[in-house]
Specification:
Layout: H1 9-68, H2 72-81, E1 87-95, E2 98-106, H3 112-115, H4 118-121, H5 124-202
Antiparallel strand pairs: 1-2
């Protein structure tokens, strides 16, 4: 890099300014990387707990539906009669400048009236199974949001880490090397000029 630099005082001033700006950017990127990593570790811990809850809820739902099968037709009738339509809406939110998905479920749970079975025609086992699967869907939606967020954060951490490493081990060292080169070359030119002036006076 030093070979491409003109050894002038204006270039030295400009280079010092660029080193200062680049160092500030480097420090900001390090703070961002560390902040994102902290968010990632926190969310990962929550995700592990959410996964455990999801597995537990799934087992409860499977157990509930196995008890509800008094007859396949009864369960199918209850499912068809249910007027509630579960919906999932995906929006966006921001974590330290990183856009991540925000997933929200609607109509994931339903009342007895919405199921259309009524108090008499219904079954407590079917109601328990419906509640269990409603809870399961809600946990699946939440887990999906967390998993997508973790993936996006990890991508941003890797990208930021590469930029930090490039600045720390390549860009800034090369700029400082160029600064030293210019300073040494200017000092050398100054000595040559002083020597030339002395010779000129002695003539």
């Amino acid at each position: 890099m030093a070979l491409d630099i003109k050894p002038t005082r204006s270039e030295l001033i400009n280079l010092k300014r660029r080193i200062k700006q680049t160092s500030s950017g480097y420090n900001l990127l390090k703070m961002k990387r560390d902040g994102l990593f902290h968010e990632f570790r926190t969310l990962l811990s929550e995700m592990i707990s959410a996964r455990e809850e999801l597995v537990s809820t799934y087992r409860e739902a499977v157990e509930a539906i196995s008890l509800a099968i008094e007859g396949g037709l009864v369960v199918k009738s209850a499912a068809i009669a249910n007027s509630a339509s579960p919906e999932v809406q995906v929006s966006r939110r921001n974590i330290m400048g990183v856009v991540v998905p925000q997933v929200e479920g609607k109509n994931l749970t339903s009342t007895i009236e919405e199921r259309g079975t009524g108090l008499i025609g219904g079954s407590p086992y079917i109601d328990e199974a419906a509640d269990a699967y409603s809870a399961l869907i809600a946990k699946i939606v939440k887990a999906a949001e967390m998993e997508a967020t973790l993936k996006r954060l990890l991508e941003e951490i890797e990208s930021t880490k590469r930029r930090v490493n490039a600045l720390e081990f390549k860009v800034i060292p090369e700029m400082k090397e160029a600064q030293v080169f210019i300073q040494l070359r200017l000092e050398e030119m100054e000595r040559e000029e002083t020597f030339r002036l002395k010779r000129f006076k002695n003539k």
